[in-house]
């Protein structure tokens, strides 16, 4: 009689909960700083912040005639509710939402509980219990959400992603400067081409990445606070004497955001699409860097220090040190860019004055930035573990004398322009010798000696080597500043 099969442990029932995705599991240490800004808990804390600041703004600007005046202690207490939002408050809010079935309404009720409890902390004289009905007044959920998301995305970019990306680009720029004068055979279309320097090629990436960082750093984070269809309809009917546009503008700007005066029920999210396009473009340039460095490793131009890679290499081939940091980065950049593209494409469209496609979509913002941040970390660690090996660089250059054909035919053209006879058809003459063929030093020098060039030009070309044919490459790195 066969034994009953053993029932496997249900991982979904374990406590603490097992992460479904890698960002909250395997890669959590790298992306954890984003949790403060782009997690569900951070979103709720930002919502609470917006509700508190709206309450303070209305009572302190006189927008609501007859509203009680909050003291500095009242305001400090309210802002303390936001600052102390932690594990217990997250659990309490979840319980409220289980009843309301509405996330923003749950935040409203949570804040009202704190207003009711204010006398326990401030004494019976506080007016906070009396301002309960001012909480969320004139607000549709999207008035709170658009501002909360803008705060979260702004802080995630400025405090987490941008510093990490900037540090990466600084690493690439430093490596470019250090290797500015190291000659390297170029490979246009994968074929031997006019030599360059390793540093100059890295400098190209540093400059490209920096340009995208400047765009990200200049991003605008827009917000609105104008009601159910963006008309201030309820505001104007309830309190017609208040300049509600001015109240909304000063409120949004108080939060450190840019006021958008023309919206439907939602702030149109165009700024998000613009930002995500720039971050995705940064990702793709970084992906290009990762694949090129991977190729340089495969050519032997870079050696990997095993201790810096944090890996023992292949599981079966002990001689190998795999470029896993760059491969991991490639994959994460592709995932991040795909998500950012989807966010940008989805968020700019809303049916008529409102639909909810943005709700679920925006909850993936943290995932998109998380995979980008993980890739940045991998590339930085990968670059930190590289050493340049000049031997393969020099070997490839010395085996590619045919690349001097460009220099020779260009010198012939210049001589022809200067009136030197016998310089006709330089391109065709060099092509016959070099196209599809390996040319050694002796053959190239023999060709140069038989061209009838002016003596100074001939001497200059005869002294030229592939390693010396790098033009202004080394000095171009100075453009990195």
Automatic annotation (TrEMBL):
Organism placement in taxonomy: Bacteria, Bacillati, Actinomycetota, Actinomycetes, Micrococcales
Function: Catalyzes two reactions in de novo purine nucleotide biosynthesis. Catalyzes the breakdown of 5-aminoimidazole- (N-succinylocarboxamide) ribotide (SAICAR or 2-[5-amino-1-(5-phospho-beta-D-ribosyl)imidazole-4-carboxamido]succinate) to 5-aminoimidazole-4-carboxamide ribotide (AICAR or 5-amino-1-(5-phospho-beta-D-ribosyl)imidazole-4-carboxamide) and fumarate, and of adenylosuccinate (ADS or N(6)-(1,2-dicarboxyethyl)-AMP) to adenosine monophosphate (AMP) and fumarate.
Listed pathway(s): Purine metabolism; IMP biosynthesis via de novo pathway; 5-amino-1-(5-phospho-D-ribosyl)imidazole-4-carboxamide from 5-amino-1-(5-phospho-D-ribosyl)imidazole-4-carboxylate: step 2/2; Purine metabolism; AMP biosynthesis via de novo pathway; AMP from IMP: step 2/2
GO MF term list: lyase activity
Domain (Fumarate lyase N-terminal) ranges: 26-329
Catalysis performed (reactions): (2S)-2-[5-amino-1-(5-phospho-beta-D-ribosyl)imidazole-4-carboxamido]succinate = 5-amino-1-(5-phospho-beta-D-ribosyl)imidazole-4-carboxamide + fumarate; N(6)-(1,2-dicarboxyethyl)-AMP = fumarate + AMP
Family listed: Belongs to the lyase 1 family. Adenylosuccinate lyase subfamily.
Root EC class: lyase
PROSITE patterns on file: FUMARATE_LYASES
Pfam families registered for this protein in UniProt: ASL_C (PF08328), Lyase_1 (PF00206)
Name of this chain's protein: Adenylosuccinate lyase
Entry's EC annotation: 4.3.2.2
Secretion signal span: none
Protein species of origin: Georgenia faecalis
Domain of life: Bacteria
PANTHER family named among the record's database cross-references: ADENYLOSUCCINATE LYASE (PTHR43411)
Segments forming domain Adenylosuccinate lyase PurB C-terminal: 350-470
């Amino acid at each position: 009689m066969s034994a009953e099969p053993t029932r496997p442990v249900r991982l979904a029932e374990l406590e603490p909960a097992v992460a479904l995705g890698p960002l909250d599991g395997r890669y959590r240490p790298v992306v954890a700083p984003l949790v403060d800004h782009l997690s569900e808990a951070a979103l709720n804390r930002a919502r609470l912040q917006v509700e508190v600041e709206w309450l303070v703004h209305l009572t302190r600007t006189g927008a609501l005639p007859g509203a009680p005046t909050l003291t500095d202690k009242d305001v400090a207490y309210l802002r303390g509710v936001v600052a102390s939002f932690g594990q217990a408050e997250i659990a309490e809010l979840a319980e409220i939402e289980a009843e309301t079935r509405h996330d923003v309404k749950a935040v409203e009720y949570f804040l009202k509980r704190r207003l009711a409890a204010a006398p326990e902390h401030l004494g019976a004289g506080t007016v906070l219990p009396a301002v309960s009905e001012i909480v969320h007044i004139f607000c549709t959920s999207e008035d709170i959400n658009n501002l909360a998301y803008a705060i979260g995305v702004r802080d995630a970019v400025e405090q987490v992603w941008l510093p990490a990306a900037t540090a990466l680009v600084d690493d690439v720029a430093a490596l470019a400067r250090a290797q500015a004068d190291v000659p390297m055979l170029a490979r246009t279309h994968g074929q031997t081409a006019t030599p360059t320097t390793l540093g100059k090629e890295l400098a190209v990436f540093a400059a490209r990445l920096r340009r995208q960082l400047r765009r990200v750093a200049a991003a605008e984070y827009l917000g609105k606070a104008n009601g159910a269809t963006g008309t201030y309809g309820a505001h104007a009917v309830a309190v017609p004497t208040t300049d509600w546009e001015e109240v909304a503008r000063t409120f949004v700007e108080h939060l450190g955001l840019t006021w958008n005066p023309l919206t439907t029920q939602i702030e149109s999210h165009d700024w998000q699409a613009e930002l995500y396009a720039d971050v995705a473009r940064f990702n793709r340039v970084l992906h290009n860097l990762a694949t090129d460095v991977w190729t340089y490793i495969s050519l032997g131009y870079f050696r990997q220090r095993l201790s810096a890679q944090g890996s023992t290499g292949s599981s079966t081939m002990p001689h190998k040190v795999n470029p896993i940091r760059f491969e991991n980065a490639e994959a994460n950049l592709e995932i991040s860019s795909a998500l950012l593209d989807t966010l940008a494409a989805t968020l700019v469209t809303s049916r008529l004055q409102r639909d909810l496609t943005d709700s679920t979509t925006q909850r993936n913002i943290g995932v998109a930035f998380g995979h980008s941040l993980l890739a940045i970390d991998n590339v930085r660690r990968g670059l930190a573990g590289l050493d340049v090996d000049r031997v393969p660089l020099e070997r490839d250059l010395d085996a590619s004398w045919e690349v001097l054909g460009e220099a020779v035919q260009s010198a012939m053209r210049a001589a022809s322009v200067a009136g030197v006879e016998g310089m006709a058809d330089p391109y065709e003459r060099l092509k016959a010798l070099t196209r599809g063929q390996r040319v050694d030093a002796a053959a190239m020098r023999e060709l140069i000696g038989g061209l009838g060039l002016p003596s100074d030009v001939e001497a200059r070309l005869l002294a030229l080597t592939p390693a010396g044919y790098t033009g202004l490459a080394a000095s171009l790195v100075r453009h990195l500043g």
